[in-house]
Amino acid sequence: MPLDTTSFNVIRTLPLPPDRLFYVLTDAKHREKWGAPDADTVLIVEKEDVRVGGQDRHRCGPKDAPKFLVDTRWYDLAAPERAVFTETLVFAGQAAMTSLVTYSLTPKGNGTELGVTVAVSSFTGPETLGEVRAGWEGGLVNLERHVNGLDQ
Asked: What's the pTM value of the predicted model, to 2 decimals?
């Protein structure tokens, strides 16, 4: 099977200063609240080690059967300006895709412009590329909702 790849950028302006937003982006309890792409999906952090060289693991999927594993490895944490990490999605013991993700946080007024760049390699076919993008777009909608519910 050929390797399918893509990359995309998403930009959001959020009403938190960069230091607070950086925390919301990297803290496990916050990620569980905003990281799933929709109301029918859950993200459960099983292991958190947010440091350069650290590795996180979480499960995601339907609320009644979160069967996808995601291994995250942190490569650069320059709080509050940027974070760089990879995510590998494992399903039924096999890697389905790996992505390189970069968060870029820039002060904008009283808030932050968040840039998210994702480069994806799918090992299971081109449909996975669209699913990854849809997952990120849904997660960022949830992030915006989550951030708006926090005390500013």
From this structure: 0.95
